[in-house]
Amino acid sequence: MQFIAKCGIEYGLQFVTQFFLNPLDSLYTKKSKKSFQSYSNTIVYNNIPWPTPTDDQKAKIEQTAQAILDARALYPDSSLADLYDELTMPVELRKAHQENDRAVMAAYGFPIKTTTESQCVAELFKLYQELTNKDQ
To answer: What distance in Å separates the CA atoms of residue 87 and residue 22, rounded to the nearest whole number?
Structure first.
């Protein structure tokens, strides 16, 4: 999986989104009562408004995405379920994700210290609405 962070900002942001926004996105886009998630090219990444990061922000996102991969690599015998258990998540992995969250939020221009999860979702929906209104 190390190739993900080295393939450029587009993949870096998709990787980041998987862990930063996907849990939030799935709360609002779940269309099935089944217990598994279903992904589609028209419902997951295509509906998330991407920021326009500076070169420094891109570099930071790529760096923090790589740090997530590096932290996960410290536990080669652990499953993703083990690594992402809220109670037992390794400190290195949690810290890497927190740094990654900050980098992505900075790219969106969200205030890092004061933006709550609800505010983040609300702002993303505003950006999405602006994008979809442009298409009409």
So the answer is: 20
Asked whether the beta carbons of 67 and 100 are under 8 A apart, the reply is yes
The helix/strand/coil state of 88 is coil
Q: What is the pLDDT of residues 80-114, one digit of tens each?
A: 999 999 899 999 999 999 999 899 889 999 888 88
Q: Which two tokens stand for residue 116?
A: 């709550």
CA distance 51 to 123: 12
Structural contact between residues 49 and 128, judged by C-beta atoms closer than 8 angstroms: yes
Q: Domain boundaries in the chain?
A: 3-134
Predicted TM-score (pTM) of this structure? 0.66
DSSP string, 34-56: SSS----TTTSGGGSPPP---HH
The whole-number pLDDT of residue 87 equals 93
